[in-house]
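Format notes (please read before filing issues)

Several people have asked whether sequences and structure tokens are stored in separate files. They are not. Every record keeps both together, in the order shown below: the sequence lines, then the token lines. Line labels are part of the format and must not be stripped during preprocessing.
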Amino acid sequence: MAAATPATEELVQRMAADDRQAFALFFTRYHGKLVTFATLYVRSRELAEEAVSDVFLKLWQKRAALVEVKNLNSYLYIAVKNQALNYLQKAENQPSLALDEVPTALTVELMTPERELLTSELQAEIQRAVDTLPPQCKIIFRLIREDGLKYKEVADIMGISVKTIEVQMGIAIKKISVELQDYLRMRSSASASAANRVLRIALSLLPLLLSA
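Then the structure lines:
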């Protein structure tokens, strides 16, 4: 029987007691998503890695104080955002890399061959649509849909109101829906009923396609 995965709160407690193994688990749990988040600001995987590494180094140095942090998710994202903006300011004249480096783990149960094919196509199409969103809108959408943060947490991280988060999410979903409908109309041009069926499948798959 596999051992239960320690809760983040437990890892933080163990880190405060100088447990390096707990820190390694904590690093593994957050590193990928924080690098993805930092990349949205610095548009460079290398700079994002450096910014996140700096944050983890500071976390370890201040590990005893982490147990006092009430919302660790917000704390981590805000720390990474600030560090990424610092790096961006220092590297204004450096070339940036493409933004489409975000890994997308896809876990869809009970897939039929048709759904599996459509999922693969839609995953690429959705990522393309997300990449066309305005910068702030894209960050908000990914924090909520890919990293699973709450609206209030994202508002704290971004330093804006929850209402603005709601508006930006509405804009993101509307733009992605328009892009998807255009794509699906082209894909299912044989008949209106076929197009509607594909669209229904697509809408049902959207949350799964965008899950981290």
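For reference, the curators noted about this record: The chain is about 75% helix and 0% strand. The chain has a mean pLDDT of 77.
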